[in-house]
Amino acid sequence: MLKPATRMLPAFAEIAPGVRRVVAPNPSMMTGPGTNTYLVGENEVAVIDPGPAIAEHVENIIEKSSSCIRWILATHTHPDHSPAVESLAEASNAEVLGIPAPTGQYQDKTFSPTRILRDGDVLETAEFRLEAVHTPGHASNHLCYRHASLNWLFTGDHVIDGSTVVIDPPDGNMKHYIESLQRCKELQCAALAPGHGEVIGDPTRAIDWIIEHRLEREAKVLAAVNANAGLTTHELVPHIYQDVDPKLYGWAERSLLAHVLKLEADGVASSMDGRWYAK
After folding, report:
1. CB-based contacts of 219: which residues, under 8 Å, 6+ apart?
2. Looking at domain 12-201, which of 3.30.300.130, 3.90.1170.50, 3.60.15.10, 3.90.78.10 is its CATH number?
3. How confident is the model at residue 7 (pLDDT cuts 50, 70, 90)?
4. Which residues contact 199 (CB under 8 A, 6 or more apart)?
5. Which pLDDT belongs to residue 4?
6. CATH number for domain 212-278, candidates 1.10.132.100, 3.40.1370.10, 3.30.70.1140, 1.10.10.10
7. Contact assessment for residue 220 and residue 272, using Cβ atoms and an 8 Å cutoff
8. Could you report the per-residue pLDDT of 204-246, keeping only the tens digit for each?
């Protein structure tokens, strides 16, 4: 889960040649300083993650794009990333790209892409080339976008510097998440542009930190299951998340479930009637 924002980002900034960032006015514990919307290109603009359906944010995107929006891309369909797509598409008549929302409570069902992307699909213009990289884990329909000439990766919620995101089953999958992190590391990008927070100039460090943190938590989960056989995930939370505010135990339990499901997939844990045992 994200940490509270320690400092705000500028509401608008040019972060690389031909790439601008507009921060949505939705700061919170779960969104950090707010959702990052990226404007790629000058004469013809691709908008990555328009964010929540906040009218002033949509108007700001249109203004900063000089009404040159031709494409709208979503990394995934969580409520802080894609709901503004609908109104922005209506205002700009832009093509919408991404993967439709899976089933689930926290999905934006209004997202309706005119072009469904698959891993390796490319958006190529006179100014830039974006390649879709399917990165399931945080969400089954999560895509990152690699900017070819910059060798930057727009990571949505897949990688956020110094923080973790909730992996919420059944759509969230911890095993897929770690595998997708490894794949992003292998891309050897020069920088990562996350869905929340600052540009990450050392991708290997940031990705290694997340993987290490998740595997340390996994080891703690397995140790707790070994020591407390037959407990439910709700009962296991206090044994594992001593470093988390009890007010956040509900979200912690969702990540704990993701961990035990990964352990089950790895063949080192099993469940019976919602109670967990080590093998």
Report:
1. none
2. 3.60.15.10
3. low
4. 15, 191, 192, 193
5. 42
6. 1.10.10.10
7. no
8. 999 999 999 999 999 999 999 999 999 999 999 999 999 888 9
